[in-house]
Amino acid sequence: MLTDQNLNFSRQKVLILIYLPWVLSIITQLDPIVSYFVAWSGSFYIFYLTLFSKVKFIPLDLPLTKQVMRPIVLIQLIFAGFMCCTSIFYFMDHMGYEYFNKKSIIPFKVNELTYFIAKCQRMSLLAHAALVTGMIVQIKQFPIIKHKLNLNLDFFLIWLCVGCYLLGATASKIASVSQFSFGLINISITCSALVFVRGIVQRKRGYIFFGGGLFVFNFLASTLTGYKESIIINVIIISFLLYPYYKKVILTLAIPTIYILLYILPTFASIVRSQAWSGQKTAVEARKAAFNAVLTSDAPLIDETNWGFLTNRLSEINMFAKFVKHIPAERDYYGLEIFKNSLLAIIPRFIWPNKFITESISMERVYEARVAYKGSDVSAKTRPVVDGYVSAGLFGVFISIFLYGWLAQWLCNKAEEWFGGYELGCIVMFNAIFQNLWRGNNFEFLLNNIFYGYIAMYAIFWMLKRSNTLTELDVYKNTANISSI
């Protein structure tokens, strides 16, 4: 029998152990190369400890393989993966390597930048631990579900897919509510993918054609945008949905898929952007040219484009290092300034016509740190770990990312509580509406997305409850099995 005391002890045990790599990286900081690699490998230790070890603290209502889209798995892997693990390419480039091959016979010498990179990696590791801490504090090992869906889930997903797409398309054309369109369209895309996967599992052709057709259409549309992120997001959604049922297949395809995404996709997206955005060709023509280029181009072209992407776009530790060099040596910490601007950014423009442009004000600190220069065609917005640092240093990193993880898990709990559990609550509502939490954004945009995302989620819940599509359950019936475990 599990008691509150047992659960708290289990929670505390993992929360203590995840900070050991960070402590070790601090101890070894006099040697920046050793300290960097200790901090970099520390994130893999946290992945193992929180997802695969005996001391992991996760919800117990489902096996781990069937809850991979909850924050402790999906958001941790993506957010911490980008923040902590991708820096290896930039660091190896800094040490004189390209694709792990030495570019020069001159021995590498530790310099000022080496220390800054190692310091940033240590703070990223601390942020990873803080993220997981926030999630684990909010995790309920026996999630509370207060409502049930009164319709067949597959039928409802189809209805929701069509309805949200139409609402999202309409909202995108109305300036005052256009920000709601992204969440609604994401719900539609996620529903189509889930219907497709459920159709495969249940061997129902109608669901396969409906869900698969819509998902493939959206995937092809994402290849016209010139953005890598939209393509990667579609791959992540379908992979994580299929994983619980086809683990061996997904794991077998993981390496070649990652190779394509990291090696070929940067060149593909670059060609689409350069030709379609400049007006030289239509988006369809640019996509065709990109396909031909990556299939027939010689390796040096792809290598050059890809290495630049891996070192300076996939990994953002270069930006982080510039901020660490700039603050507090050249400028004091921002304190609560960024947070105040984030709160002001929530105010709708029809209420405050003279409100600042969020993009402009968030780019000011980028210009101050000379990460980018005014007039350049670059949008180099900061990530949460950087905003945490520039606000209050190491303390700011820990507090901001702890709250990030805490809030992500709380929102997931609320979605499952309102929408009848994991599939509709976590997979569809939480991950579609709050998709920005996967990788994060600067504080101004992030807080705005969370605030209006919560309003959108509650509005959908209210409408479904009013129409009796969702009805209230007796909470005690859902937790009665706890005493028997």
TrEMBL record:
Keywords assigned by UniProt, alphabetized: Membrane, Transmembrane, Transmembrane helix
Membrane-spanning residues: 33-51, 72-93, 113-137, 149-168, 180-200, 207-224, 230-246, 253-272, 388-407, 419-439, 445-464
Keyword Membrane applies: yes
Domain of life (superkingdom): Bacteria
Protein name: Oligosaccharide repeat unit polymerase
